[in-house]
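The methods section describes the discrete structure representation at length, but only in general terms. The central task, working out the structure tokens from the amino acid sequence alone, is never made concrete. Nothing conveys this as quickly as seeing an actual entry. For illustration, here is how one protein appears when written out as sequence plus structure tokens:
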Amino acid sequence: MVKTTGGNEIELFNPYTGGILVVGVVHGDEPQGDYLIRKYYKETPDTKLIMIPCLNPDGMQKNSRTNSNGVDLNRNFPSQNWIEAEKNEYYGGKEPASEIETRFLMNVVEKYTPKAILTLHSPYKVVNYDGGKYEGKYGGNDARMLAQKISEIIGYPVEENIGYPTPGSFGTWAGIEKGIPVITLELDEEINIVELERPVFDIFRMLENY
């Protein structure tokens, strides 16, 4: 069991080697992933997906982008472009991988070697992608092709670039530098979360077959 600085447990569902990893709530003020992952897991307990419903429970508890230490977890990964930035909501920490939550996700990736990773964010309504190639159901697909499959289900456009710098991001560390296809699904935060169940669960089911 891993606990955060705030004493909350970071849960990991269905860990096994070589599956697809789904991660929710990297930013605490983007809670949709926790609800969607937990509900899907409750309805599909035999899922083949590895799931972290909430990476940042401290942030979610206080509705804050950052964790208890004021660190944006998506700027805290030890990528080559990590920088020590000013202390604002995008603060990447005093050093890369300084945070319990960051190290937890790194350990999951390194221990279970997922063949692809989906992270659930909000609010931009795009399917962003980083990283390498993998052999999926449809043959030699790359991260863009997986992003396109997700786009066809949810109706959001595929974007290779989110539109602003992200030093120390998970997508850079796991996707670009480790070569794992990483999809960042930016969900609509303005609609009732129940409306996201059908498309997101359809995405999860599609990933089950990869």
